[in-house]
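User
Take a look at the entry that follows and flag anything odd:
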Amino acid sequence: MIAIIDYDAGNIKSIEKALEFLGEDFVLTRDKDVLLSADKVILPGVGAFGDAMGKLTNYGLIPTIKKIIEKKTPFLGICLGLQLLFDSSEEAPGVSGLGILPGKIVRFSEDSVKIPQIGWNKLSFPKKSPLFNGIEEGAFVYFVHSYYLVAEDFSDVAAVSEYGNTIHAAVCRDNIYACQFHPEKSSETGLKIIKNFCDL
């Protein structure tokens, strides 16, 4: 069973629809025991970094997320769910992220690109990851974001994209996977990525 972490994030319905389409069993929950017993866990996210960390704190979910990752349960962060895995974000100065992976979230420069990036952009893959099995170099996925990841350790980066500069668009380390883009809104390519995660 796949557990989607329920902390009032905004893109849950589209993730549920994608999992339903793929025929996967899932539950939307913030129950710690259910989350810890799940086969796989998804951290969704649309919205502001500081607000999201506040919700995770208020619901007591931060220790649970860290235990899930320590247990080596496959874990997928999507959009803001990727950003929260890192140390900090320029969107919320003084607010600590989960700090599970090293790196920071920075704002696009308004001098070079339109903010937010909304729409389709292509991926390239600096390393192999099971998340992208069967996905061709240059595949297009759907982004909606004003902030992007600068990973401290480039060996964590599984996919990059270009928008004014190089975006670290997906990461993979051990059982941790995360995408800045929305696979659940990325047509057949996105469904294949979600299926790859479900099949881990």
